[in-house]
Every structure is written in structure tokens, then in C-alpha cells.
Amino acid sequence: MNSQIAPAPYIIHGSLPDRYPRGWFCIGAGYEFSTEPKMLNYFGTSLVAYRGEDTGKLHVLDAFCPHMGANLADGCVKGESVICPFHEWSWGADGVCNDIPYAKKIPVKARITSWYTHEANQLVYLWNDPDGNPPIKEQAIPDEAIVAEEGWTPWVIRRVHVENNCRELIDNMADKAHFSPVHGLPEITHFSNVSEGHKYTQFMNGHSENGLMKSEATYHGPGYMIHKSTTVAEGEPDRRFMSLVMNVPTSMESFEFLAGFKERVPEGMEGDIDAQTAYVNELIDDGVESSVFADLAIWKNKCTIDNPILCDGDGPVTKLRQWYAQFLVPVDQVPESLQEKRIYDKTS
After folding, report:
1. Are residues 262 and 324 in the same domain?
2. How many helices (H) and strands (E) does the chain have?
3. Region 80-109: what's the mean pLDDT?
4. What is the pLDDT of residues 123-139, one digit of tens each?
5. Which of 139, 167, 185 is the last residue of a domain?
6. End of a domain among 139, 157, 188?
7. Does 1 map to a domain?
8. Which domain holds residue 217?
9. pLDDT for res 290
10. Is there a contact between 2 and 293 (Cβ–Cβ < 8 Å)?
């Protein structure tokens, strides 16, 4: 009779953050926004995004009119203001009510939140800070020189609603072991992560079905990651492409997953934006089973796990989570040590 007592089964612990992360979040390509109001359901509420008729500048406001609760995204734009469809109250880009057609005096309290926006890399970004502070200068989204190069297609953006906390997506940066079973990458020859302040970069080289792949992916804050990759195959021209992996929380238990793609313009498609977009969409559809969308099936049914059992072949998951945690606390609680550059090489 075996008298040894078997160890108790491991108990998974998991908890959700108690606030939304602070930082810049990409909400789409610049051409997706116009003077037609667009509804955005982010950060547990509804927002309205529109371009001003006079300046073309993008404005984002809280969408619910505090008069009688109508959604401003159902209204229209006049000048730089959005007009409520219910009673035609006019809300300026600063969130202040600037006209009520039937009133002699505008109530002093008639003010809604105006969100900080930014445009770079042919994309649109929205700043979120639960403490209401303005954007941090040092965390501004940089212009990527490669995006401005001639010969690239427009960004093609795909959106998917995911029923899980947005933090789940971030783990992929350090999760070296998932690239083979989920994304079909046969061999990884180099894998390292570099964290420095609000930036976190993954460097990865490997052998794919199409040749030698060299990849660099950088998160600028908690919601926006740009990925640049080159595939080299003997006897073939190098294939360069760019992609985006992004998230915007919709609730504590859900997020909008945004993936963006840019390809080199094929010969014969120069100047034909429709053909270029169709070409990129076809490539996305052909590779959907092994691309960034392959993670969707995992996120759909996985649990939140704060205490994962890790082995020596895993990537620096714990270090990545420590980096991400800085966006879930007030600025004055962010450890100074996170500003230091740290390299985690998990090649072997």
C-alpha cells in the first residue's frame, strides 16, 4: 500500500482589474472617420467621434446628451459641433453646450467630457486616464518613418468583439511557447523582450513556411502595438509587411480587438486604392487560421489566471505583467524602476 500523500491539485486564482488602463488607444484608421458622427462603445460608456466641417480635426465626446439622454452619434455635425437629434442642443468640440435653439440662457452645468485625440501613422488614437489627467508628453505615439514610405497599401482594419479582459491580449508578447501550436511557426531561432518605460518590444526570428522571418513588435502603452516583419526566401524578393495588434476596453470583461494590416503595393495596382484594399483583405482571409486572429478561439474560453505555473521554456510572462501593471494604477504609484531598460533573452 502506497502511504505517500499525493500533492493537492493546483488552485488557479484570477481577478479582474478594478479600473481601465491609462494610455493611448488606437480606434482605427484616419479615413474611417468623417463629418458623419460615429458611435464608439468604449470604457463602459458610449462616445461620439466626428470630424469638424471647418478644420477636419477629429473630436470625441461623451455621447449621451445630459439634457434628456439621447445619443449624439444619432445627430449631425455643424461646424465643429455635434447637434443632438432629440432637441438640437449643440455641443462644441470642447464639450460645452454652445447653443439651444429654444432657450434664452444655456445652463451652466451643460458640459460633457471632451476626449484627447491624436493622429499619426494614418491612424487615430484616443487617450484614457481614469484619474482625468491629460496625455503624458513622454508617452506620445511616435511617427513611424516606414508608414510614410511610398509603395504601401492603406491600413486595412478588422474588428472583433472579445468577451474577456483586454489584459489577456498582452500576454502574447512574452508567450514564446504559443507561436507554434497557435500560429504555426515551426521554429524560433531568437526570442527576446525589451521593456523601457511605457514601451515593450518583442524581437523574434524564426523559420516559417515562407522562409526566414524577422519580426519586431512594440507596444506603446497598453493598447497599441505596431509590428514590422520581413520574410526572406531563397530566390524570392524579400516580403515586408506591417501589422497592428490593438485593443480598446468595452467593459471590464470585454474588449474590441483591432488588427491592422499594410502590404507592399503589387505591380499594376499603383494608384488603385480599391484594388489594394481588396488585395490586403484577400491575404487576411487566406491567413486567418494562423494569423493574429488564431488567438480568438483561446480567448473565448480561457479563464483569468494570476498565478500561472511557468516552466523554463516559457517567455518572461511575469516581467511583462509587471510592466503592464503600471497602466492600472495612478501615475504617482508607478515604480521608478520601470523606466530602466531591461532585456529578457529567452532564445534558448
Report:
1. yes
2. 4, 19
3. 98
4. 999 999 999 999 999 99
5. 139
6. 139
7. no
8. 145-345
9. 72
10. no
